[in-house]
Amino acid sequence: MMEHIPLNFPFLAAALLVGISFYIIIFKRNLIKLIMGIAMMASGVNLFLVALGYRAGGGAPIYTDAPEGPMVLPVPQALTLTSIVINVAVLALMLTIVIRIYRHTGSLDSEKSRKMKG
Amino acid sequence: MLTKIVRTVANQLIVFILIFGLYVIAHGHLTPGGGFQGGAVIVSGVVMMLVAFSSQELKKSLRERVLSIMESTGALILIGLSLAGIGTVFAYNFLVGTPIFGRIPDFGPGPGDFWTGGVVPLMNLAVGLKVVAGLSAVVLALALFASGEEVEE
Amino acid sequence: MASLITHSPILIIAIPLAAAFLTLPIGMASKKARNALVIVSLTFVVFLVFALARDIAINGIHVYTLGATSPDLTIPTGFMVPVRIILEVDGMSILMGIIWSIVALAAAIFSLSHIASETGQNRFYTLLLLMVAGGFGMMFTGDLFNLFVFLEITSISGAALIAFRTRFADTQEGGFKYIVVSAIASLMVLFAIGLLYGQYNLLNIGALAQVIQYTTPDKIALALLVIAFTIKAGMVPLHLWLPDAYSVAPASITGMLLITSHTCMYAAFRVCFTLYGGMLDTPVVGWIIIIFGLLSMFVGVTMALSQKDVMRFMSYHAISQLGYMWVGVGVGLAVLGNAELVATYGRDAISGGIFHILNDGMYMPLLFFIGGALFHCTGTRDLTKMGGLAHKLKWTTMLFIIGTLCISGIPPLNGFSSKILIYENVYRFHPILTITGIIVSILILASFTKTFHSAFMGAELSEYKEVKEVPRSMIIAMVILAAGIVFITLFPSLIVNWTIHPAADALIDQGAYINAVTGAIP
After folding, report:
1. What pTM was estimated for this model as a whole?
2. Per residue in C84-104, pLDDT tens?
3. What is the CATH classification number for the domain harbouring A15?
4. Which residues of B fall within a CB distance of 8 Å from A88?
5. What ipTM goes with this model?
6. Do A18 and C170 touch (CB under 8 A)?
């Protein structure tokens, strides 16, 4: 059954996630929705990174006495892990700042809580 | 503060969550896991306690000074371990061959040997300590914000 | 001493990192010990950077492999490509390092009194030292993914520092805009790194530069990388976050954020010149950079003419100065394929752009610090409310005059030296660029005269009768930067021959960078 899923299906999913999150970031006015858009874009890029490493029919790269055949690349998995950790820190910082903005201006709408223009 | 059933179950479950988190941190060089992953598991246990008991109750046990010192200690152990090998190169694995975590793993399939890996398990423990302290402080601060109280500096 | 210089690239990154986490426990014990720790560690880093610079001027590119059995074992036995994280310091990186270390030291000394009335000062110094470590990491690394990680470290600590004074509402808004823009730019960089890794299985810049061809995913990766770094460096039309973020931050942090923008510009140059090198379509990319640099120069100064907030005024001028650097190096990039044009004016145009990075890194933080000093004394950033401050703030007035003369390009100060280099060499490429540059310089002088008159000249206002001169540590910080300006003013050809021309050659010469990493492997 695995042969019926085309091999670039994860890349299409990653592109869809990044595309939808660009739409959210540009067009939505609620600050919390903006943060969710950034989280979704991060998920899309992480999916893209992990899907890069896949080799068709490959096994997990955990052997000292490896069997014959291709193995999935381990480096993109390390890159994705680092990226997930960094995104946790960024999202925590953004949420804290949004709480402070809400305390000061009483609104989560980005049009109403903008004070600096020009 | 939720009902008595939830509080009792949370009190019992936190032990298992802590042990599972410590297992994931400590066996990071053998099974999937490591510093950040195990730390995140332990922080999910802390979040469970925050939900079951209120943040005011938890603020008495998780004091901000203690978390701050734990976080700094974790980071300093990590940098210290990397600088300890500076005689050769920064971040050199100088514990390979020594009795502390220094065994070479056997060739071929088998259960992993815990005392292998060199500097890596110690770095995992340092990173786990830092992640637990840091993310618990963040989660506690957000919960205190939500209940309307100002966070102490 | 020799081993200190061998290990210095990683020590320059590790010492601020260790000091950042030592600040919290020590700060809980005693404030004076924490201040001493911050100043001593940053001074030691300045000393290490200068020692490393001298070593690179004598011995060439300095490579450091993390975790190997010896520092220059970039390719272990039996491998064909570099496998570890490699720090590679060449002439351009160490020049950025010199600027960053001096400005970081000045910013730390300035902060000693600028934020003395805030709570949570331990965390401020932790974040400041983390930002210093992140900046050095971005400059010294030879690995694309390491660049991404240090870019994120610098952005996160910068955003937290902008939003540090939580009792104001506009600081939170500036910090939020900064972190959102940084997060999107960093995700674009990560996507581009994924594209490059998927094709070539390599993350090291030197090794990638050897095997890269200019296929369609490579073009997409180049576009994403250049756009992401120019967003972070404040190039028009992607500059809209910059005045908001720079005007509300504490003044010492604004100085450091400016050098972070320069570092992102350096990363864009590293990608265009060293990673892609001759493979890119250099006239096209060069002309795009030149056109947007011209727009930055012009939009920056015209928006600055109508500003009432002194820090916002300075940040629009920062955008226009960044435009000069883009034009200078963009001309060099546009002629990179043509060896005789490079020898005639390309190399000098790049030198002019890089020299302007050095000069701008000295006088622009000085101007930001003066804005912060004005805010400290009068409690407001609004120029219409200030007046007659020259009677009380004598040192600040004198330093503001020096800063104005530098930024307008008046001889003999250092702004003139770099601008004349840019004007002469860019004229031979296309005359309109020089003419625009001169017009922009005139407008800069006009706007600064207006600001000087409004803030410092005039009769003494009644509400500022009790204003005293700014605290001593702020003066010391500003004098450090002014000393740098005076040194560059007095010895411009010494600076150009010893630091700027090696940096320009390091950018143009891709082969030396690749050879330092891959050694003798053909």
Report:
1. 0.94
2. 889 999 889 999 999 999 999
3. 1.10.287.3510
4. 135
5. 0.93
6. no
